[in-house]
Write a structure and sequence with these properties.
Shape: globular
Radius of gyration: 17 Å
Strand order of the largest sheet: 2-3-4-5-6-1-7
Distance between the termini: 34 Å
InterPro entries: Acyl_CoA_acyltransferase, GNAT_dom
Protein name: GNAT family N-acetyltransferase
Helix content: 25-40%
Number of strands: 7
Length: about 190
């Protein structure tokens, strides 16, 4: 009988950032790639989990994967939450998720590109489109958190676009166990189309 092994926690240093004015940058649409950015108001859970895993697996994103269907559906389909998908050359290539915390604050809860979209010169452009979308909601500030497990240039990129650090904290992240990964694979294979 196999023993359940719980992975060792990973130390995480989290930085909270805010911006209080829309970005002033302007970037052209990337050349030699066809892009589309589509809001997904009733995103199916299996598709969301696919996006989340494709973007977040290398950065240790686990929270949404541990949610049961009911909790995830309530989170995603909350009227204050929006998921928007980036397509490159016809295929999903990334996504961003915004949460309108109140009339004053919009939180960028998730942002990232699939591995196949890295190196195409679209990362900065896509972040700028994300920030434009956040500011169209009329907040007084936009917030985001990043941590030392994210892309090595994430903090620098956020600051380049006008975010300023407002706090830090240390936490522990427990990676997905082999048993959890197996359950996720089974759930994803059995998810209705």
């Amino acid at each position: 009988m196999a023993r359940k092994v719980t992975p060792a926690p990973i130390a995480v240093h989290i930085t909270a950032l805010e911006m209080t004015a829309p970005p002033k940058q302007s970037l052209p649409v990337p050349v030699n790639v066809h892009t589309a950015i589509l809001n997904a108001p009733d995103i199916p859970l299996a598709f969301y989990r696919f996006l989340y895993r494709q973007v977040g697996s290398r950065w240790h994103w686990v929270d949404r994967l541990r949610m049961d269907d009911e909790t995830l559906a309530a989170t995603l389909h909350d009227k204050r939450n929006s998921v928007t998908v980036l397509y490159v050359n016809g295929a999903p290539a990334g996504f961003f998720e915004l949460l309108q915390l109140d009339g004053d604050v919009v939180e960028l809860t998730h942002f990232g590109l699939f591995e196949h979209a890295l190196g195409l010169g679209i990362g900065k452009w896509f972040l700028l489109q994300t920030l434009y979308a956040a500011w169209t909601l009329g907040p007084k500030r936009v917030s985001v958190t990043t941590n030392n497990l994210d892309h090595p240039r994430a903090l620098q990129l956020y600051q380049m676009f006008g975010f300023s650090p407002v706090g830090t904290q240390d936490a522990q992240l427990v990676p997905l166990s082999d048993a959890e990964l197996l359950e996720l694979a089974k759930r994803d294979c059995l998810a209705p189309a």
